[in-house]
Structures are given as structure tokens and as C-alpha cells.
Design a protein that fits this description.
This protein is α+β, with helices and mostly antiparallel strands. The protein is built from 11 helices and 9 strands. The chain has 3 domains: 109 residues, Butyryl-Coa Dehydrogenase, subunit A, domain 1 (Orthogonal Bundle), CATH 1.10.540; 107 residues, Butyryl-CoA Dehydrogenase, subunit A, domain 2 (Beta Barrel), CATH 2.40.110.10; 146 residues, Butyryl-CoA Dehydrogenase, subunit A, domain 3 (Up-down Bundle), CATH 1.20.140. 52% of the residues lie in helices and 15% in strands. This is Glutaryl-CoA dehydrogenase.
């Protein structure tokens, strides 16, 4: 497997030969199939459904559910984001949040019923937690309700920013039980009466992802479709803890994509009779970007090792998400600076990375919330309002 210029410390060498082959397969697909259409899909804000069979053929959906190392799933995430954060987010919502919810909170029967088809991407999943009136306070402020009615549950409420929801076959909906006030998870299948999903328009980031506003109006879900091992918000938070590290890997992939394009541009673009890569100030920016990328990559690699050894904690994922996304924001800005005016033109990709970075910076916990999680761990004192 050819080492990328952006992997300056050759951290991919920590993968096994079989794992490197999987990563190479993902890289080839992203470069050959996704890269040529990424800017057009982003500009039109249209999800390219024709690519889904190709993603399925990669056979990487649900790797974690099949016992793959976190290091491998991290590198797969990085490779996808290196080319297109939108399609990587689509994949992450399906395999990390939706499949992860069923794998972690579903009964054995539910896992057998849904996960194989989701692994083959014959059924696509979405994850409905965020609400119109709640973001960071979702643990205490969840407004969507669930009421038991015989052998079914009746869901009422609304969700916002739910990726994949306009076309997903299965949507995980988190709602508060009116009787015991505990948060429970429900699998809502496509076509269920009382469930509507409306695409959110006019986004300036991750435009290819079909985020939706969901409305639940007396939506009946069988008891058999309630996630049987989800007993409270602690289980929901555990899923987010597992996927938060994946967002840090996303940030690394975005930095990698922006750096590679900025480096190539600097070598080709000439001013004053020589490539701009020969100017000291341009080299300074390139090294700053590489420093952000390399330090962040080292952090997520170590995070994956902690995950694989079963000793990682909330604060480990929180620090990685907070740190890597801040470094990402700086790195894509410097990449845009190297490209000058061309940095805001889609044709050069970097402008897309700059815009998409803003969404990745915010979701799965803001910098401030992840800072408070880490701060509580190191001081022993909670500073939450």
C-alpha cells in the first residue's frame, strides 16, 4: 500500500496487511467513483443514490459490529473524508449511529433481523436524536414522547438535522417514556403512518447529505421494534461516545484532503516565475497544516488503541473530537489561503472542505460541551449549567 504524503509519520504501518488491503479498496473507490461527482452533487445538494451499490461492494458497513479493530474503522473513515465528507457522513450515520444503536441496544433477535441487511446496505439507517428546540441539552430536554398502548408505542414530537432520513429504510428514534420518564429507542420503518421527513434546504455545509426535519404524529411502533436493551439516556450517550471518536477521524480525513490539494496546487501554481511552493510563507502554511494533521492523527490512532483495549472513557473521545476539529478548522483555512481566490471555487475542492468542516466542527458535541466533559474528568468538578 503506497504511503500517502499526508501520513507523514507512516501511521498506516500500524495496520495489518489485510487491513491495509481494505483501506486501499476504500481509497480506490473514493478516488475513482466518488471524487469525479463530489463537487457536482454538493453544488446541486443532491444525494447520488447510484453510488450506494458501490459502497455496499466495499463490504465495510458495520465493520465494528463484526469485530474489526477501531484502528481499521478509523482509517476507513479517514479515507472517505479525504475525498468527500458528505458521503462519509452518509456512511457514518448508517454504519455508526444507526447500526451501532441496534448492535448496542437491540436484542439478539433485533440484531439478526436488521443488521445483516444493513451490513449489505440493502437497508439504510438514520439516527433521530437532535430536536428543533434541543441540541447540547438533549439529555435533559428531550421533548419527543413515547406512550405505551397495548402491544405498541405511540410517538409524538419532532427531530431536526437527521441525516439520511428522507430515504432511510430504518430510523432510530429516541423518545422519552411518558410513564417512567426514561429515554427509549425505537426503530421506525419507512412508510410508518404518522412519520414524515422533509429535506432541509439551503445548507452551506455537507450539502450532499439529505438532512431532514422529522415530524412524528401519533406514530405507532410495535413493542417488537423498541430497542430492548435501551433503558435510558446513558445507553444513548454510550453510542455517541463510540461515534464521537469517529468524528475526530473525520476531521483528520478532511485535513488530509485539504493538505494534499493545497500541496499539489502549490507545486503547480507559478507566480513571479516560480512555483509558489518555493516561497517561504507558503511552505510555512503547508508545515502548519501538516503539523495539525499529524498531531491529530496521532491522537486518533491512540484513541483507537484505547478503544480496542477496552479502557477508553468519555473524556478520551471528547478531547479528541474537540481538539481535532479545532485543528481541522485552522488547517482548511490555511489550505484555502494557499489557493487564494481559487480556494473558494468548487473546481479545486478546498472550498468544499472549508464549508464541510463547519458542520463537522459542530455535530457530535460542540467544542464547548466536549471541553466540559474533559474538564470534569481532569478536575473532578462539573461545570455544566
Amino acid at each position: 500500500m503506497t504511503s500517502l504524503d499526508a501520513d507523514f509519520y507512516d501511521q498506516q504501518s500500524l495496520l495489518t496487511e489485510d487491513e491495509r488491503e481494505i483501506v486501499l479498496r476504500v481509497r480506490s473507490f473514493m478516488e475513482k467513483e466518488v471524487a469525479p461527482i463530489a463537487n457536482e452533487a454538493w453544488a446541486k445538494a443532491e444525494f447520488p443514490h447510484r453510488l450506494v451499490p458501490g459502497f455496499a461492494e466495499l463490504d465495510v458497513a458495520g465493520l465494528a459490529c463484526r469485530g474489526a479493530r477501531s484502528l481499521l474503522t478509523g482509517f476507513v473513515t479517514m479515507e472517505m473524508n479525504r475525498v468527500d465528507p458528505s458521503m462519509a457522513t452518509f456512511f457514518g450515520v448508517h454504519t455508526g449511529l444507526a447500526m451501532g444503536s441496534i448492535a448496542h441496544c437491540g436484542s439478539d433477535e433485533q440484531q439478526e433481523r436488521w443488521l445483516p441487511a444493513m451490513s449489505r446496505m440493502q437497508k439504510i439507517g438514520a439516527f433521530g436524536l437532535t430536536e428543533p428546540h434541543g441540541g447540547s441539552d438533549v439529555a435533559a430536554g428531550l421533548e419527543t414522547t413515547a406512550r405505551r398502548d397495548g402491544d405498541a408505542w405511540v410517538l409524538n414530537g419532532a427531530k431536526r438535522w437527521i441525516g439520511n432520513a428522507t430515504f432511510a429504510d430504518l430510523v432510530i428514534i429516541w423518545a422519552r417514556d411518558e410513564e417512567d420518564d426514561h429515554v427509549k429507542g425505537f426503530v421506525v420503518e419507512k412508510g410508518t403512518p404518522g412519520f414524515t421527513a422533509t429535506k432541509i434546504e439551503h445548507k452551506i455545509a455537507l450539502r450532499t447529505v439529505e438532512n431532514a426535519d422529522i415530524t412524528l404524529t401519533d406514530c405507532r411502533v410495535p413493542e417488537a421494534d423498541r430497542l430492548q436493551r435501551a433503558g435510558g439516556f446513558r445507553d444513548t450517550a454510550d453510542i455517541l461516545r463510540r461515534t464521537r471518536g469517529g468524528v475526530a477521524w473525520q476531521a483528520v480525513g478532511v485535513m488530509m484532503g485539504a493538505y494534499e490539494r493545497a500541496l499539489a496546487y502549490a507545486k503547480e501554481r507559478e507566480q513571479f516565475g516560480r512555483p509558489i511552493a518555493k516561497f517561504q510563507l507558503v511552505q510555512d502554511l503547508l508545515v502548519r497544516i501538516l503539523g495539525n494533521l499529524t498531531s491529530s492523527m496521532g491522537m486518533v490512532v491512540r484513541l483507537a488503541q484505547l478503544q480496542d483495549s477496552g479502557v477508553y472513557r468519555d473524556e478520551h473521545s471528547a478531547l479528541a473530537k474537540a481538539y481535532c476539529t479545532v485543528r481541522m478548522r485552522e488547517a482548511v483555512g490555511w489550505s484555502r489561503e494557499i489557493l487564494g481566490g481559487n480556494g473558494i471555487v468548487l473546481d479545486y475542492d478546498v472550498g468544499r472542505f472549508v464549508a464541510d468542516a463547519e458542520a463537522i466542527y459542530s455535530y457530535e458535541g460542540t467544542r464547548e460541551m466536549n471541553t466540559l466533559i474533559t474538564g470534569r474528568a481532569i478536575t473532578g468538578l462539573g461545570a455544566f449549567v
